[in-house]
Write a structure and sequence with these properties.
about 70 residues
């Protein structure tokens, strides 16, 4: 499992796409806050930002990606 799958599963989503289209329904912010950035590589963080936020994140580091996702789920 990857970062996006872990966030979705731990947030109570049945499908990953629910995080993207209905993020307010899930506790993704809380789940993401508890995840250590070191648990996933930079590519996974960038893919999560690209998929969920619809933004290019290839030049950002893991901390910046996590911050961007936390803002998205706020």
């Amino acid at each position: 499992m990857g970062l996006i799958d872990d966030i979705a599963m731990k947030s109570g989503c049945e499908y990953v796409s629910e995080l993207k289209y209905h993020p307010e329904r899930y506790r993704a912010h809380e789940v993401l806050s508890a995840l250590p950035v070191e648990s996933y590589n930079e590519r996974e963080w960038c893919e999560a930002v690209a998929y969920l936020v619809d933004a290019e994140a290839s030049c950002e580091d893991r901390e910046a990606c996590k911050h961007r996702l936390l803002e998205y789920f706020s």
